Amino acid sequence: MEKIQAYFLGQNIQSNSSEAFSLYEKSHFGERTEGKIRYSFSEALFLVQKGKMEILSKNRKILHKDLMKKIQKFDKRIQIKYPVFRDLREKGYVVKTALKFGADFRVYEKGKKISEVHAKWVVFCDSETQKLTWHEFSAKNRVAHSTKKNLLLAIVDEENDVTYYEVKWIKP
Prior knowledge:
31% of the residues lie in helices and 30% in strands. The chain has 172 residues and is of the alpha+beta class.
């Protein structure tokens, strides 16, 4: 498969190439919108890192190291979120944004068609140096419960290794 040619336009990364549509159908990268595939910043970083995509801006290729800097202008938390996205995706999960839930990601179980099922987890990413108050924990837990998903706290250490804590509601 040839590399996907994508374009950084405003705050969006998108492509209308046949490779983009093919990868969308096969692996659920991106979202179909207005005849194009639009990528989250994490998806684009991952695909560039894996050598499956190149991103252009003003007809110039953006190098991987410069891409992170460019994205940080729009997403100050990308350095915490991206290691979590990469780790989950490399483990075979489909990972999508969860902005409408006020979370970082929603994650689908392996082998499930995302058009046929709901995400199993809602993910909140944080650095190991950040403190989480009981009030913040409760708020995250309520988001997960109200959306019928399990809460997954993803904690990123200084080496960009990720530790997960899953919280489930149980009925006594």
